[in-house]
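Final report, closing paragraph on structural work. Over the funding period we assembled a curated collection of sequence-structure pairs, and we close with a single example.
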Amino acid sequence: MNWLLVIVGGMAGAPLRYLTDRIVQARHDSGFPWGTFTVNVVGCLILGLLTGAVAAGAVSSDVQLLLGTGLCGALTTYSTFSYETLRLAEGGARFYAVANALGSVVAGLGAALGGVAVAEALWP
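Its predicted structure, as stored:
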């Protein structure tokens, strides 16, 4: 049953990543990969919230598999982040490359910590 939860979550996360990336990127006239940045930070927020909820006993491990492993696993993308950062650096947009690398790590960690903090406030 666990593998089915992961598959269902992944089936939702992959198209959500694609659509979010296209919608966000279409709104920005820049070489910075805002779409990938957005899905990765949102995924970190969801995973932080979910982790806090599981730790508090408010959410089952089945939900963690569905949303954490499945949805967030397919929604977020380290490989695309890495590729886009490398492409920026090789294309001469070194500032964007560094901003993407540092900004993604800082914003991702901040979103995960924020999600845990929200969960702790909701389920003490």
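The chain has a mean pLDDT of 96. Helices lie at 2-26, 34-55, 61-75, 78-90, 94-122. We thank the funder for supporting this effort.
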